[in-house]
Amino acid sequence: MTGTRPGLGVVGRRLAQFMLDEMLVFVPMLLLAIAVVWLFHPHGVALLTFLEVVVYTMLALDFAGQWFVYAWWPYRHGGQTPAMRWLRLRVVTLDGTHPTLGAFVVRQLLMLVDGFAWGLAGIAVMLATPRRQRFGDVVARTVVVRVPGRRTGPGGSAHQAAFPGPDGDLGAVADAQLALGRADVGLDRGHRHHE
Question: pTM for the full model?
Answer without folding.
Answer: 0.69
